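TICKET #2291
ISSUE: user wants both folds in one file
ATTACHMENT 1:
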Amino acid sequence: MKLLVTGGAGFIGSAFIRLVLGDPTVQILNVDKLTYAGNLDNLRSVENNPQYAFVRADVADRAAMRDAFEHHRPETVVHFAAESHVDRSILNPQPVFDTNLAGTFTLLETARAFGVARFVHVSTDEVYGSIETPLEADEAYPLKPSSPYSASKAGSDLLALSYFTTYRFPVVVTRASNNYGPYQFPEKLLPLMISNALQDRPLPVYGDGQQIRDWLYVDDHCRAILAVLGGGRDGQIYNIGGSRSLANLDVIGAILSATGKPESLIQHVGDRPGHDRRYALSSRKIMSELQWAPLVDFEDGLRRTIRWYQDNEPWLEHLRTGEYQRYYAENYGNR
């Protein structure tokens, strides 16, 4: 199978590539723009693998996408590439719409022109918005995005699904809960708190810290995407949850306990605008149709993640001083 992966230098995309390259019958082209969160260090273990190739390109660049498809002729596409941080989307919404909507449109058009046999569009539970207890969002739950980021993802989901309805193009959409694990860029909750705790720096907590999130270990998410790639039904949506909901403050407490750091490092800060209170997914569909289930429980996954960050301080230091600093300054520094 010839597979094109967008955003493969990011956290989830690189984990997916490392997983799939265990199959000797797969050839992967990784297309990534390498913005602040794209890091080829995430793929050092596979960069010399003859099954793997990399092209630096923007998914919104029509000429670059056509060139990639012409040269590599992928049979399937897994589309991770996205501007994915809510805070950044609030400060400057333009990049999320350029990448998440225009980029998805360009990729869909190119894949359709080249007759791709399966297009997996990777999305997020944030498109459902905040959900009241004890409800869970299934795939038919109404969309109610609260931020420019989640609105752009909801829009790109609907755009992808419209290609199935209109053109019978073989699109499948996945929506996952909060991912965590090794190689995650340290602006998301877990890596930020782990990194700061290891350096005895303050741990900034939005509002009262009682926002509820469902936690999914990244390798479990990648196994789910692989299951969808192989057996998902065209035109369908599949929710992917970790079946473990926790308040942010409880997660931070677990990090402090595991790293032996004091709770005095917690620093409550003003809540962000439109902050969703609770996310909750039902994964019954993917579990029943594709026999997928999460294998890594949160306590084990958190131990693995903390240990990885402890053992990979050079990776963190590279991010603190590397190219992402310039990208951040150019796109967000004056806002």
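ATTACHMENT 2:
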Amino acid sequence: MRIAIIGAGAAGCFAAANIPYAPGREVVVFEKSNKVMQKVKVSGGGRCNVTHACFDIPELLKKYPRGQRFLRKTLYEFTPQHTIDWFQQRGVELKTEDDGRMFPVTDESQTIVDCIWQQLQQNKVQVRYGKAVKRIERSGEQLILHFADESIYSADKVLIACGGFPKTEQFSWLKETGHTIQEPVPSLFTFNMPKHPITELMGLSVEEAGVRIQGTKISEKGPLLITHWGLSGPVVLRCSAWGARELHDRWYDFKILVNWLGEITEQDVREQFVGLRQDMGKQYMHHKNPFGLPRRLWEYMLKQCGIEESVKWGEMPAKAQNKLVQTLIADEYHIQGKTTFKEEFVTSGGITLAEVNPQTMESRVVPGLYFAGEILDIDGITGGFNFQHAWSSAYIAANSMLQS
């Protein structure tokens, strides 16, 4: 039996790591570049956010803007707990951070890469580099892979695990097999605000901010980071994932409202202001920040509201107070453009899910052809959810190819 795996990323290598060696079985991973698991290596700032400590599957499904119905089958089959156990059985312990993200205790993504690679070696998997697939054709019971270097490989089973593509035309060799492609658009990106004065505060972060995209139902809460080009951080990335298609259709030109205080309401802030005027009436507003915001951000807000350094809490004009309330809980920004989040690009789009069996990951169009990972029209928000989908789909595909 000959199994070909296209793509040496997270899904491709994990699938190969779950196909044990057996005499008469050949497993070959074909990779168009000269490196393996590059995305695994750079993810999570080089620490690799392996999965998320979300063990309730219905709750876990809510972390995927696209593909929830499909994932009901796959995530029950190979859960985050299975992921933890798989690595633990191979000597890699994972730890959970306060926000639920899980990393290797070494805080080194190379630990994950090495673990999977060692299992590949144990399984006697071959990895061939510089192999870009140009065409797949059927010949009897075999699937023939045609590569850009004009070589060919004949396989009994083929797993496509080459990740997502940013452009529709890059899927042409898969469309030729009879599959339908959902147009790819970027997901997990940051919001650009060209020349906005707040970008001078780049590097500042707020632990719990709320972001709402105007004209949509998209609203998220979480850490927010000010960058030299605009706004980033987990809360922005989650909004970008949920709004991937809608924001693409708007040419990334839209407005957001930021609640710098997280869940605190306008009524809450106004009531606090009454107390502050009474208790700290003689203190200068610039010197006393009662909301736990970074000092430079607080001073920036006061300046934007026209509140001078000489103004005391008891002297704040009503007009300035109203403006400050709005700035704190409904600060409006005009977003014009996006920036890919580091090397962790994710695409929304890919192989249409109706054409794949979620219980086996086998194509419903081409028998013997399987899919795993981001090549499918599935994507999650930031936090280890995209890797969990890669592990789950790869594990199911590996087992299905062996059983069939």
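RESOLUTION: both attachments delivered.
EXTRA DETAIL ON ATTACHMENT 2: The longest strand covers residues 205-213.
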